Amino acid sequence: MLLPLHNERARIPATLAAVAGFAAAHPDYRFLYVDDGSTDGTAELVRTRLLAAPCPNVGLLAYAPRRGKGHALRVGVAQARADLVCFTDGDLAYSLDQLLAVVAALATHDVVIGCRDRRDPAERALGPARRILGAGFNRLARLVLGLPHPDTQAGLKGFRREAATRLFARQRVGGFAFDVEVLYLARRLGYRVGEIPCRVAVEHSAKPSKVDLLRDPVRMCRDLLAVRWHAARGRYE
Fold first, then answer.
1. Which domains does the chain have, with CATH numbers?
2. What is the mean pLDDT of residues 167-176?
3. 3-state per-residue secondary structure call for the chain
4. According to the model, what pLDDT value does residue 17 have?
């Protein structure tokens, strides 16, 4: 399980305790934090905690400067040796017990993605900026890239290792749109993509938003157009 991080120092004590507890109960699972150029001491705190209370199946990979969540996952996938490769947000927006459903679904699919119910109280509790931007981006991604999935952005996804290796080796977008790029590639390569319901933690909904209503819509459109450009130029072959 890959856990990408960026500037999550305030939440690390709680989330690391949850990861360590789950890892101890499931020794056949391995967790790798991938710190994407944090500047608030996130990586240092994770490293200190792991040294103080070693957990053999929890590790850390850190680099600088920041390259984006897509890059963090590409680096993490390159390190993966397990038959299945999953990821969720490093701040544990999705509880770890939902990982079991992802793993179960990978028995019959090459790629599994979480799909949130927009009627969920946790989803309704999100600020209007995050809800509007997320819904708008999903509709735009489905239109531009021809994707059938009702939710492309949930931070809970899993892959068989062969699929993860091929997809992330081709993946080029480091920012917000890396999810849809990977799903677009999965569709192009003929992988079986399954969907499972997932729920955002209620406490995560109250987390301050990092959405920039001026810059993020421009970045989203730019990234979607970049995917189409790379495809037209044959760069995914």
1. 2-232 (3.90.550.10)
2. 89
3. CEEEECCCCCCHHHHHHHHHHHHHHCCCCCEEEEEECCCCCHHHHHHHHHHHCCCCCEEEEEECCCCCHHHHHHHHHHHCCCCEEEEECCCCCCCCCHHHHHHHHCCCCCEEEEEECCCCHHHHCCCHHHHHHHHHHHHHHHHHHCCCCCCCCCCEEEEEHHHHHHHHHHCCCCCCCHHHHHHHHHHHCCCCEEEEEECCCHHHHCCCCCCCCCCHHHHHHHHHHHHHHHHHCCCCC
4. 96
